[in-house]
User: Fold these one by one.
Assistant:
Number 1:
Amino acid sequence: MDFLARTNEVTISPELLGEVLLMHAGLPPEDRRDHTVRMIRLFELLDDKGLQDDRADISIAIDFRLTALARLLAAQEALGWTIPGSETGMELIHPSLVRGAAEEPLIGDANHQPAFDPESFRQRVLTVTDPSGSA
């Protein structure tokens, strides 16, 4: 089994992914850019949740999913689902994007990096989003 297929078998809840995003947002800017610091904090979060036995697989799955989401955001594939945050490089994202990132299967991009298929991701986000308003 290839690595992405194995990673796709790890279930990550939207709530856990959201907690990790909030944890990242709460880090000082210099720590947010440091992969080692982010992973240490992630391990601590998983340990606090009693997930230390599976933390290697869970942390890799979370890291890959957040990386794939960041690539979509950088490519402006999620326009209309984000608003600028209070700091440069931070965006507030709609909860449906978090759910989509937790549920959408990862694929390998042209450079064999974890990614989401943009069209499939868009369709998933539209499917999981509760409509609001009235006409």
Note: The chain is about 55% helix and 5% strand.
Number 2:
Amino acid sequence: MFALAILVPGLILGAIAWGAVGVLRSRGREEFTLATAANFYAQVMMLAGVLAVLAGIAVLVKLGLSQIDSAYAYFVPSAADLNGGHYGGPTISQQQATDLILAAMLIGVGLLVSGVHWLLSRFVGRMAGASPSWIVGGTLVALTVLCGLAALLSTVVGGYQVLTYFIVGAQQAGQFGDSVGAAVVFLPAWAVVITILLRQVRHPAAKTPTSTLASTA
């Protein structure tokens, strides 16, 4: 899936960089305790859960596009392949069912992971050293960067595929449901998190032991 192909490596690399920044900032400046590590872990997993939910919604948008025309989102075998018995791949219905299962898993597991780790963050948040500034502020920044990356790439790729599909031809463009579905979901998500980020930059709240995602939920 297009969104997952962007978000998974981005989240992994971002978490490594985020953790490295936190370690450097903690040297002699901010206390680093086991609670710090636990809250950082909770924030990363909460972020992963939110992104999984958004990716699942993008799959549902792809399914919606396929209701308009199956060729927008899935490979449609030619009549010659079907009549000649040369096509042994999945049918349109099977492809749609597979994506419906994927969407349900992404949304369901994403909500569960986010909820559990939100509770974990709340639990450890009041412990000593659990909520340094690089964790409290970094969560929203990381979400903004990842949503922006997914939104930008999916919009460019999706726009290119749509224009090619309708101007040049379907064979040259291929299916655009994945990329357009990701763009439809991540563009507004990016706009929302940027708005929240700018609001917090302009009107910074007093430090609290709770996580940024928890305070904006």
Note: The CA atoms of residues 160 and 178 lie 13 Å apart.
Number 3:
Amino acid sequence: MVLSPHTRNLLLSVTCLLLASCESKVSQCQKIIKVHNQIVLDTQKLTNAGTKGDTATVLKSAEVFAKGAEAMGAIEPADDKLKELKNQFATMYQNSSQITKQILDSQTKKKSSDVAQGLAKLSQVGSPEKNLVDSINSYCGGNGSSTETSSPNSGKK
């Protein structure tokens, strides 16, 4: 069967769109994974030996979370499941940033009970991370990347 040039071009265009959609999911998975892994690395570097009450380190942690939320928010996946996971990661980072800033404020004001409450909140905000990591690794499985399993919220504050 001989296809007309118009039909052949249409078929080629449809094939390219289908292939682009497949690549798009892998690419978007990798973007989300890359942002998460960078946040994990950055927070681990900051809190490797604990913060020992160092307000500069606590503030840098809040900045890492805020930048992570922004970077995650900038990813625009077409896939609904990836949108959901991305939004959950972004919300977790944004909340972590806000709570970390509150901890810093409480620390500066020497309100140790508020610091303890803030740390408990931070732990609670970060608790869904393992499930998020497992979900994205499972959903994106086989694309050659995986997220770090060490929580950015597990650093010593």
Note: The longest helix spans residues 5-47.
Number 4:
Amino acid sequence: MKFLLILAFLVSCSSKNKAIKAPETVSNEAFKKEKPLTNAQVSDYYKESAKSINPALQDETLDRLSQSELANYSSSSDPLLDISLKCLRGDFKSAFSTAALYFNRYQKVAAYWNQVANCHLNSGAHRKALLFYNKALEVKPNYVPALNNIGVMYSRQGMDQKALIAFEKANKESRFSKTPRFNLARLYLVYGLVDLALPLFQGLLSESSGDVDLLNAVATAYVLKGEFEKAKSYYQNVPNTEWGRAEIGLNLALTLKKLGQEEEAQKVLKKIAAPQSIGLKRYYVFVKSQLGVSE
């Protein structure tokens, strides 16, 4: 389904309450009786797509699109896609109003409840998100996008052990779903389990060879293994316009340093925009020290 995916790298793909309660924004259309759709009548994949530097999971999630890429979706005739786009743009009030408007049509569709839950997740309402993920699982047991996104939710809360269980269950339920594999590999990599992460990333990359995040992930795995020549070969496939991103450029600069290519490493370092996250700031200082650059 529509996984939602990613914390700097993570990706996302309910209860007895009716959708979102925002009666002041709901028109009379919401109360017209219509025959509810079934799960089989609603696709679990995005059919519309905008060009992206990270296309590997694009049919399952919009989470890895940049704001400029999201802007290429002007609107959509698909209500679930419309809800997703509004949530990703931060227009939660409109997204919830749209969800309420289409409740009668989609109340028996797991993808609908998953999308509502994703919107709560993105707004920071974790308890409500879990409520609606569970509703999706009630409508369709072992629904992979909801299982995956519960993992995303736990990861965002720093509960990585629970996240791991959710990702592994989602991956077990559907070996063909790419987003749980991506998130599972990402979590393995965070904890240095390179030999578990690398095959998953490489499998995804074989299906989408130009995906920038996957190229960076595989290269990072080889950096952690100390195989810098291999790491460099993957970084060379990343457009140099992306080297200014700290999560890419810092490891590339360190790789070049380890290979004795000091001048090239310095050039890459100079192009890196100062990172905002605490973790990347610390790593930025570390890499600068490795390259002999003072504050």
Note: Confidence is low (pLDDT under 50) at residues 1-10, 14-26.
